[in-house]
Structures are given as structure tokens and as C-alpha cells.
Amino acid sequence: MAAARKAKSSKLFVLDTNVLMHDPTSLFRFEEHDICLPMVTLEELDGHKKGMSEVARNARQASRFLDDIVSGKEAQIVDGVSLAGPSKGMATGSLFLQTQATKIELPADLPVGKADNQILTVVMQLAQQHPKREVVLVSKDINMRIKARALGLAAEDYFNDQVLEDTDLLYTGVREIEQDFWEKNGKDMKSWQEGGRALYQLKGPDCSSLLLNQMIWQDGSDKPFLAMVKAVEGKTAVLESIKDYSHPKNAIWGITARNREQNFAINLLMNPDIDFVTLLGQAGTGKTLLTLASALMMTLEEKRYTEIIMTRVTVPVGEDIGFLPGTEEEKMMPWMGALEDNLDVLNQTDGESGEWGRAATRDLIRSRIKVKSLNFMRGRTFLNKFLIIDEAQNLTPKQMKTLITRAGPGTKVVCLGNIAQIDTPYLTEGSSGLTYVVDRFKGWSHSGHITLQRGERSRLADHAAEVL
């Protein structure tokens, strides 16, 4: 590492294997800084490359990137291989492979044979070799970072996959406007009727901050003002009044909105011009129930979609119970308890048809709902389907892209989840695929998002969510 021995303002990052298996493109995400890969990292990549899991695919992709970087440049490995290239983004640093045996001894409590500890010895040796340079371990493993800091080494998480550093800043899809908003932007307001809806054209400095399909509300003395941003152009915006789904006459499959956010959510779900909807919220806010009710209404009553497809990530909350027998749908049914529970609620809304009528309705509903596994989504194209992705917070951005790009003409995709309940290793609230799509799709004319705030399951569930 002759080039690395020079004192530089750039840092030297030592990557843990889990960083490469989480994001293979991490090799090109460190801009002008250099990267070092211990040989044990390559060994671990080799051990995880087999299989069809996301981790195995990422391990194989990371190996391909490394092969592409060092191919034909074997003589430069000691001094560093440049990461710069037309397809490598902003990376201008170099890649080093630790090929020499380390002479550092770790404390006796840390066994030498463990891969994590071998990586720590590499970090310690590099820190001693380059005292004027900042050597940093990058790892997704919390315990690994703790051990490194206990040994006096710099360590940090891999942050480049974070969509937002603070999820409190995540787009909610809803905005409350005060009276001064109207005073600044509503002086020359124009209003008209179109398709049974009232439209308002505003012009002012605050209009440019509005986003397409964002929900607007203001509490009034007699009735709150509820509207959706229909168009934004410069300092001009058009607001459209929304349908009141809290009124029994507008019930969707017997379901009415119980709060403002639910009303907003149903408006997005029932809007045929919106192809992609994301709903965030804690347990009991009605995400699945509202989505299923809207899906049934648009599939069975309005005939807009041919069938409803529901899928989710199969990550257990407790211990894994092993392999499940049966067909693809039968294997997925234990994961779809939420589907069955909500179908029971929707089936009970038809109180006049009697027991036989409800049984027939239930059979009709089940014939139109297909439960699919994520494992078999690659290469598929869904035409005129209502696709529901449940527990979407457990998806990586790459998996989310794979699913959403399955949508063909006439298909609507709805993602449901709670980013406070992530069960996938190494995923955080900031790097979840659900956070990723909420941030990337905001402001698109054919997408909408609502963060549901209030739980409506029961007083027990609401109290438990607050105090536990």
C-alpha cells in the first residue's frame, strides 16, 4: 500500500462483509475516500454466495463488482486499484486488498479464528501503519462496532442506504393550513364546479411548496375544509374537494372512515387515476381493512380490476416453525392472518343477506383474492390487478423496486406497513424500502401517501400502543 502510506485528507474505510451483502454498490459510495477489504471478507462472501435469498444475490453481485475492478490490474492491488470509472458514480478513491498476514494480537477474550476479530486486527494494523490518516471500520453489525470502539478504533454504520437521517421528517401526505395561508395565497382565488367536485385556484408564494395529491385540511367553525392538491405550476395551485367517506351514504363495502386520515386514505385508494398508494401507521389504524374494502369495491362492484393479489414478506416475529406443507397459497395462508381477520369484518357488514348469503359472498370474495409469495414475483407482469403489499417495511429498496415494476397496464399497487416494526436484519427506519418509495414517489401525479395517526381497533389496543 505504497500510495496509502502518504498522509491524505481522505479516509481509509475497512468494510465488513455485511456491508457488501447489504448493498453491493457500497464499493462505489465512498467518493474520494479509499476502501480496504480484508481477505476474510472475500472468504465470507464466497461462503454466502449460494442460494436464492437476497443476501446470496448481493454476495454474488459484490463478487462480480470486485472481479470487474481488479481484472487485468493484478499488479496494482498492493498500491491500490482505482474505483473511478464512467459507470461507478462519484467514486474517485482506490480499493486495497489486505493480502499480508497481520502481526497484531487481540485480547485473549477475542478468539483469533472468528472472522469479525480477524477484520478487527486488520483495522488495528492499518491504524498503526497510517497514524496520520483516519482509518474507520464500516459495519452493519452493532456488536462489531462496539468491540471496535472498545479497542480504541473508529467505527460507524453504513449510512449511504439511508433515505432520511430522521424519519420524523418523512413525508406524511397531509398538510394543515392556517388562516394566514388563505390571506397570502387566496386573494385572487377562483372557484368552480367540475364532476361534482369543487375546485379552487390559488396563487401565492406558499403554493409552490405544495405537492401533487397532497391532502390539505383546515378546521372550520361548522365543517372542516378537506381537499387534495390537483395541480401545481409555479406559484399557482389547484385544490379539489374530496369525497366524504365518513358519511354512511358513501360507505365502502360497509366501511366508513372514522377519522380524517382514513378519509384521505380512502380517497386515494378509490381514485382510479392514482396507480400507487402507500399507507403508513401503527397497528390498528385500519391500513389493511380500508385497502381490502376499497379493493373489493373496485374489483367486484366497479369491475375496474380482475382480481386482488396480496403478498407480504415472510419474516416471523417469534421462532420459525419450519417448512409448511401444501401449495404456494396454502404455504402463505399462515402469514395472512390479517387478511382473514379483515375479511371477517367485511363479511359481517352485510347484515341483511343472512347466513347463507354471507357464506356465498365470502366464497365470491375468496375466489377473487390470490395470495402470492414474494419468491416467485420475478419476471411476472400483472395486468388489471389490485396488488397489495403488506408488511412492506421489511422490504429492501431493491426488493420494493422488483415488486412495483411487476405492475402492468391498469394495475394499482398499494404498500402497507409500520416502519416502527422492522423485522429484517440490517434494515432500519431510514433504509427500509417503504421509506424509500414514500420519499421517491412524493409529488408524482399518479401516486399518493397517507400516514395514519389514530388507532381505531379498540380502546384496549389504543391504550396498549400508548403505554407499552
TrEMBL record:
Query: What InterPro entries does the record point to?
Result: P-loop_NTPase, PhoH, PhoH2-like, PIN-like_dom_sf, PIN_dom
User: Which intervals hold domain PIN?
Assistant: 11-146
Family of the protein in this entry? In the N-terminal section; belongs to the PINc/VapC protein family. Belongs to the PhoH family.
Protein's name according to its UniProt entry = PhoH-like ATPase
Gene Ontology cellular component terms for the protein in this record = cytosol
Q: Under the GO molecular function aspect, what terms does this record hold? A: ATP binding
Q: Which SMART domains match?
A: PINc
> What Pfam families does UniProt report for this protein, alphabetically?
PhoH (PF02562), PIN_4 (PF13638)
Arranged from A to Z, the UniProt key words for this protein are: ATP-binding, Nucleotide-binding
Give the species this sequence originates from: Chitinimonas taiwanensis DSM 18899
**Top-level taxon of origin:** Bacteria
